[in-house]
Amino acid sequence: MRYLPNTIDDRQKMMADIGISSVEELFADIPEQVRLKRELNLPEALAEPELVRHLEDLAGKNGDTSRYTCFLGGGYYDHYIPAVIPALLSRSEFYTAYTPYQAEISQGTLAAIYEFQTMICELTGMDVANASMYDGATALAEAAAVATGATRRQRVVVSRTVHPEYRQVLKTYLEPRGVELVELPFTNGVTTGDNLDRYINRQTAAVLVQQPNFFGCLEDVYSLQRAASGVGALFIVSADPISLGLLKPPGEYGASIVVGEGQSLGLPLNFGGPGFGYFAAREEFLRRIPGRVVGATSDTRGRRGYVLTLQAREQHIRREKATSNICSNQALCALAATIYLSAMGPAGLRRVAGLCAQKAAYAKKRLAAVKGITVAFNAPSFKEFVIKSEYPVTLVQGVLLRRGLVAGPDLGRFYPELSNHLLVAVTEKRTKEEIDRLAEALEEVAG
Amino acid sequence: MIKNPWNEKLIFELGAPGRQAFSLPASDVPEVDLDWPENMRREKAPGLPEVSEPELVRHFTALSRLNHGVDTDFYPLGSCTMKYNPKVDEALAALPGFAGIHPYLPEELVQGALQLIYEMEAYLAEISGMDRVTMQPAAGAHGELTGILLVRAYHRCRGENRTRILVPDSAHGTNPATAAMAGYQVVSVPSDQRGGVDVAALEKLLDERVAGLMLTNPNTLGLFDENIHIIADMVHKVGGLLYYDGANTNAIMGYTRPGNMGFDVVHFNLHKTFATPHGGGGPGAGPVGVKKDLVPFLPVPLVDFDGKRYYFNYDLPHSIGKVRSFYGNFGVVVKAYAYIRSLGAEGLKQVSRDAVLNANYLMAHLKKYFYLPYDRFCKHEFVISGKWQKERNGVKTLDMAKRLLDYGFHPPTIYFPLIVEEAMMIEPTETESKETLDRFIDAMIRIAREAEEEPEKIKGAPYTTYIGRLDEVAAARKPELRWRAGK
Ligand SMILES: Cc1ncc(COP(=O)(O)O)c(C=O)c1O
After folding, report:
1. Rounded distance between C-alpha atoms, residue B164 and residue B59, angstroms
2. In order of start, what are the domains of chain B with their CATH numbers?
3. Any idea which architecture A84-339 has in CATH?
4. Which of the residues A23, A76, A96, A140 would you substitute to probe the B interface, choosing the one with the greatest number of B C-beta atoms within 10 Å?
5. A91, A67, A79, A62: which is closest to A267 by C-alpha?
């Protein structure tokens, strides 16, 4: 077995030192009743070349972005990944290390997380950020939990324009804590601004919105923020970090906590994971935030260094009183994002965001001109927008597929009132030619 | 003084205004004025680095050199199963057909991915003795939360409102933290003389308020609880369920299974048992397996097969919902799948045999020099104590851990489990050779001797690392959590 160094001879010597004649003696304390009295039923072991062939076969059955031009969005996006990212991530000193408990031999991970926290603060306009969460959905759920703790209120208001899967996760997380979850309706693709006080009241711990929202539209975050702060509720924003190259940082419009999915920042699609969630907050919530946090300090010789800090919030110290149970996070993905943001810099991030917005604007206009297609919402948008088809979405998607194109998701899946609606995402990777092909394919549906 | 691989500058302190490491094509669409309201536009650019690609690469390469990984040397961090991470698994997960697939692709375009998930479910079900497995949880603790929410849903569906989760005093911190997050009151169960659950004490705690007991077996002392079937019967008798924290599965593969021990729910840590790398803290994956009675509550979607094609099954009316967006850390699942296929049944059993043999070998040698609170055969890890050194020489476990750095090793997990004073939890894993174990034994013996002869030396360790002991108290008292220009 190629990963196991012990030879029969090694094992004999080790057993002699232990004073046993068979390894089975070490398992003698497993009672008869609970033993597995047969071998595990698993496929035969594969040699490396066989393994590679088998997995290449499976991978070959999937329609990756090299085979299908991707206009799919909804939280995960086909952005360009600079080659420096996989090259640096493949340094095994990074990827074969554990959580940096022993700071003296983990300064690489720790300094990189410190840089990551700084970049997230810069993007969001927040004071503090943690070392990452599992994904955008759990980051949002944990943010809501922070709000209920901070306000001692048990009602969380979330807009229906927040990613439907995030809202499902929110529900899963909050329900057992006895938190009431209330949804704000939407009109024309954005949260309905009227009658906010019907939903947001003095029992409300937080108001949760997504900017740009699930439909790609820009929310009127100012009036939502006012409604939240007016009753002493926290204003929590989930934001696509790429959009923050051009959009106002949520810290500048009064957000208390900003979270989001970080996959856009240099991570592959991976069928939905791993990516990472980011979590940033105002200083006042520092001791309530979940997860790992890195801080700067100095060593016995006065040299600057970095450590995991504020651990009194965490499960290994506080156990049932911890702010969260999170232990492992998505550190390597956060490192990828740190490298991505370093490579892009302020100008590059602005450029990526600008290209997304320009190309999406072009696509929106181009598709609006297709017979049988209307752009569903006329609110300003970033890199995604919603089209409505006269024909069933499955039919439309079938035609696109035949032309090597994919768009979506089908919004009828999440919003019964939006059957025949399709989300279209346009990143900087899409070309005019690809967008035109999408339009032509949609013309074919009508034709 | 050792040579410093890093210039101590953070990426923000490198480069110069105008430098860049990106390259993006010019826009090929007609430029339009975006119809965005003025107050939504960013005015001030974020303070991101401005560096060229070579500077960027040197910086992160320098940082990587400050890290100790499994590929650097021995990493006996107890409870974390720091085994070797096969290179081929990394390459396979990066195949475009896995890395380049969007989660909302139509099912016909992800048949290979769905097949992999479907087969992986069957393997994990077989290894654990469970009926179905969800891949959705992103890590062990996330699996715990999922599992305890399943326990809760099960009881509620039966019209029972149980309020307590029992957790042994030796348990990992995520266990009580999880139970609290799921809305339960946490009740601690003491350990007995042999390091297992104190059955008499458990008996007193069991009643119809108990929703379940969370246990890892072998436990965090590395000891197999021989009373497990009795414990399972006791908990089941009052209508409670048994949750298996699968962090220690590396010890038992092919010998026993949580299902055979009487557990109802289990989580795996693919990043421990199944050799996927820890990534400096993640990503991992924490699939959750359940017995039949709990299947209706699993998160959606499950992956099913209708004889012709694989598909997502959302038709679980009693589901707890979703615990994460999409389908979990799929990329990690690919690596673990490749690992299981590389080893097969006999390979996995050999993994457990060697992991247990290596641990007992270390223990046999080290117990002459360090206090061993539970002197019996261990499984894949064991816990010794720095108590003798502390009492005799004033040298603490922390000091000895830091001294190990000078010998080139990652220290064991220290001060956990909480029930052993000055604990050192040592898990060698099966991927270490006898020579490495011998080197480690030598280093530990030398440290024990140094503790007697030169205690002050140990208290000042480490000496050979890039940086010395860091002031954690200052870090927490006056938190500095981000870089700022001019500081
Ligand atoms: C016994 C035990 N349980 C649970 C966990 C939590 O696992 P994760 O870090 O994957 O969330 C760990 C990891 O350290 C562990 O050792």
Report:
1. 50
2. 88-342 (3.40.640.10), 349-475 (3.90.1150.10)
3. 3-Layer(aba) Sandwich (3.40)
4. A96
5. A79
Mean pLDDT of chain A: 97
Q: Is B5 at the interface with chain A, CB within 8 A? A: no
A69-81+346-446 homologous superfamily: Aspartate Aminotransferase, domain 1 (3.90.1150.10)
**What confidence score (pLDDT) does residue B1 get?**
41
pLDDT digits (tens, 9 = 90+) for B65-122: 999 999 999 999 999 999 999 999 999 999 999 999 999 999 999 999 999 999 999 9
Per-residue pLDDT at A254 exceeds 90: yes
Which amino acid is it at B152? R
Closest residue (by CA) to atom 13 of ligand 1?
B80
**Residue B140 Cα to ligand 1 middle (Å):** 5
Q: Which of residues 287-346 of A touch B (CB under 8 A)?
A: 292-301, 303-307, 309-312, 314-322, 324-333, 335, 338-339, 341-346
Same fold, A69-81+346-446 and A84-339: no
Q: How far apart are CA A235 and CA A229, in angstroms?
A: 7
Mean pLDDT of A189-199: 96
pLDDT (tens digit per residue) in B387-419: 999 999 999 999 999 999 999 999 999 999 999
Which of B269, B379, B418 is the best mutation target for the ligand 1 pocket, counting ligand atoms within 8 Å of the beta carbon and taking the most? B269
Q: In the structure encoding, which two tokens stand for residue B41, read together?
A: 């536009």
**In a 3-state reduction of DSSP, which class is residue B13?**
helix
Which value, to the nearest 10 degrees, does the dihedral of the CA atoms of residues A160, A164, A166, A167 take?
50
Q: Which residue type sits at A115?
A: E
Distance from Cα A316 to the centre of ligand 1, integer Å: 10
A104: tokens are 């003296």
Which residue among A30, A222, A299 sits closest to B469, beta carbon to beta carbon? A299
Residues B444, B449, B454, B456: is their CA dihedral positive or negative?
positive
CA distances from A4 to A8, A49, A306, A320 (A): 11, 18, 35, 38
DSSP strand pairing (B382-385 vs B423-426):
antiparallel
Domain borders along chain A are 69-81+346-446, 84-339
B251: which 2 tokens?
């010890």
